[in-house]
Amino acid sequence: MHPIHVETAKDIQNVNRRTSVTPMAIAHVGRKRLPFVGSYLPIVVLVIWQAVCSLQLVIPAILPSPLEIAVAFWQLTRSGVLISDLKISLIRVVFGFLLGAGLGLVTGAFAGLYKRFEDVVDPSVQMLRTVPHLAITPLFILWLGLGEWSKDVLIATGAFFPMYMNTFMGIRSVDAKLFEVARVLQFNRVQQFTKLMLPAALPNVLLGLRLAIGVSWLGLVVAEMLGSSSGVGYLILNAQQFSQTDVVFVGLIIFALIGKLSDSFVRLLERRLLRWRDNYIG
Amino acid sequence: MSAIEELVIRDLSKTFISSQGALSVLRDIDMQIPQGEFVTVIGPSGCGKSTLLKIIAGLDAQHEGDVTLDGEPVRASGVDKGFIFQEHRLFPWLTVEENIAANLSLKHREVRDKVDKMIHLVHMDGFAKTYPRQLSGGMAQRVAIARAFIRDPKVLLMDEPFGALDAFTRAHMQEVLLDVWLQNQTTVILVTHDIDEAVVLAQRVVVMSAKPGTIRTIVPIDLPYPRKRSSTAFLELRREVLNQLEAHMMEAHAVISAPLNDEGGQ
User: Fold this and answer.
1) B136 vs A: CB within 8 A
2) Do B205 and B218 form a contact (C-beta atoms < 8 A)?
3) What is the Cα–Cα distance from A233 to A227, expressed in whole angstroms?
4) Would you call B77 and A275 a contact, using CB atoms and an 8 Å cutoff?
5) Is A129 domain-assigned?
6) What CATH number corresponds to the domain at position A265?
7) What does the pLDDT average to over B82-110?
8) Which distant-in-sequence residues (6+ apart) come within 8 Å of A228 by Cβ?
9) CB 3.0–4.6 Å: which of A129, A169, A268, B54 could bond B59 by disulfide?
10) Distance from A130 to chain B by nearest Cα, in Å?
C-alpha cells in the first residue's frame, strides 16, 4: 500500500514540487551525492597513463602520453583538419540517422498499429535484421559507388532496425485495460493515438533512439574506413598508416565525446518526457 | 420525472460458449431503474454481476434481451454510460487535471471550470498537477470518479470500485461518492461484495444468485442519507440482505457439493 494519506499528502507533494523526485527517490536524499562522480574513473586512468608514459615504460609509437595526444588535438584543430573532418562526419551521421531512424519509426508504428501490415512486413524485417548490416557494405559500395550515398544508406540501415523494433514493441505494450477506458471515454482515432498509444510507447521509442544513434556511429566509422577520403574515420585510418598513434587517439576521443554528448541529449529528453514514470532508480 | 427517463433491462441472458460446452452466466434479468436511483448489486462470485455491468455499459454486445437507456437501445460504449473499474485506470502520463479532462481540452473555459469544481468535489484540491504515481489508491480512485462525473453520464456503472481499498479509505470514499451523487442525481449501479457497502449506499439492493446468474430478490433500503451503520433499522436491513445471501449459499451447496469459489463471472 502507498504510504500517502490525505493528511500527509500535501507535505509529500511539496517535497515533490521542490525536488521533482518520486517517493522512491526520497530515500536517496539522505545519501550524499558526490559532484562529478562519473569523471573520477577517467581521471584516475589518465593520471596512471601519464605516469606510465613519463617513466618511459612504453614507446610513444605504441602508446602516446595524454599530453602528447592533447598537443596533437590542438595542432589538428588549429590547422582546421579536425573541424572539416568532423563536420563531414556529422553531416553523414545525421543524414543517415534521420533517414534510417525515421523510416524505422514510421514502419514500426504501422506494424504496431495494424496487424495486417505486421503480417506482411515483420517477417521480412526480422530476416534482414539478422544479417549484420556491416556485411552489406561491399554491396552498397558496388551499387552506389564510393560517394556519399553508400555511406548514408549504410548508416540508415543500421539505425532502422533498433528504431523499428522498439517502436513496434512500444505500441504493442499499451495496456489493454487503458484501451477499454479510451472506449468508454469515446476517444476518437487521433486522441487514441496522441493520448494513449504515443505516450505509452514513448519509453520504448526513446530507447530505440539511443540504440539507433549508437549504431549510426558504428556505421559511419566502417563507411569512412572502407572507402573515403574524408571524415574522422578516415583520419584514424590514415593516421594508422603513418603510425601517428596520437592522431588515432584524437579520433577516438572525438567519437567518445560526441557519443556521450548525443547519449546525454536523449537522456535529457527521457527525463523531460517521462517525468510521469515511477521506476526503481537504484 | 418523465416515464422514459430510465434504464430498462428486459429478458437479458448471456451464455459463454467454451470447449467444455455452454455456460449460462446470466438468465432472464429484468430490471427497471428510474433516473437518479442508486442501486447496488451483490452476489457470490460467478453470479455474473460484472458481466451485467459490462453489458449495460455497451462493452459487451454478445447477449440476448434488451437494454434501453431513455428508450434508446444500448449498442456501444460511450460517455453517457460512465464506467469505474476496480483499479483506477488513470493514464500514468497525465496529471490529475489532465486525467479528469482526458479528451476534453483544458483550454476551454467551460471544461477548466468543471474540472476545478470536480477536483474540489472529490477532495483533491492542490493535487491538480500531480501524476498518478504520487497518489494513494483512494486518491486515484477519487480522480477516476471525477473523470466519470464530469461527463454528466446518464448512468454511472461501478465495478467493485473500492474493493482494493482499506476499510477507512473505503468508508471515506463512500461518503465522497454519496456527496457527488446527491449533487448530480445520476443513476448509479454499483457492484460490490461488501454487504455494508451495498446497504449504506443504495436505495435498492439487488441480491443475485449464481449458476446461472439471476436476480434472487431486491431489497429496498428506505433510510435517509447519511446513514448510521449502527442504527437498528440499518442492521435490520443488513441482516435481511445477509439472510438472502446465506440462503442462496445453502441451496447451492445442496445442489452441488462443491465449494462456491469459481471465477466464472470475470
Assistant:
1) yes
2) yes
3) 10
4) no
5) yes
6) 1.10.3720.10
7) 92
8) A146, A151, A234
9) B54
10) 35
Asked, for residue B224, whether it belongs to a domain, the answer is yes
Q: Is residue B261 part of a domain?
A: no
Has residue A4 got a pLDDT over 80?
A: no
Domain count, chain A: 1
CA distance, residue A201 to nearest chain B CA (Å) = 11
Q: Is B1 inside a domain boundary?
A: no
Chain A: residue nearest B126 by CA?
Answer: A10
Looking at per-residue pLDDT, the higher value among A27 and A258 belongs to: A258
Q: Could you report the per-residue pLDDT of B178-210, keeping only the tens digit for each?
A: 988 988 889 999 999 999 999 999 999 999 988
B131 and A CB contact within 8 Å: yes
- Prediction ipTM score: 0.81
Cα separation, A72 vs A87, in Å, equals 18
Q: What is the nearest CA distance from B131 to chain A, expressed in angstroms?
A: 6
Domain of B43 in residue numbering reads as: 6-255
Per the domain annotation, does A18 fall within a domain? Answer: no
Please report the pLDDT score of residue B75 as a whole number: 85
| B162 part of a folded domain | yes
**Dihedral angle computed from the Cα positions of residues B169, B171, B172 and B177, in that order, rounded to the nearest 10 degrees:** 120
For B181, list phi and psi in degrees, rounded to 5: -65, -45
Cβ-Cβ contacts under 8 Å between A and B: the total is 86
Identify the pLDDT of residue A62.
Answer: 87
In a domain, A86, yes or no: yes
Domain boundaries, position A210: 64-273
- Check CB contact under 8 Å for A275 and B131: yes
pLDDT tens digits, B203-225: 999 999 888 888 999 999 999 98
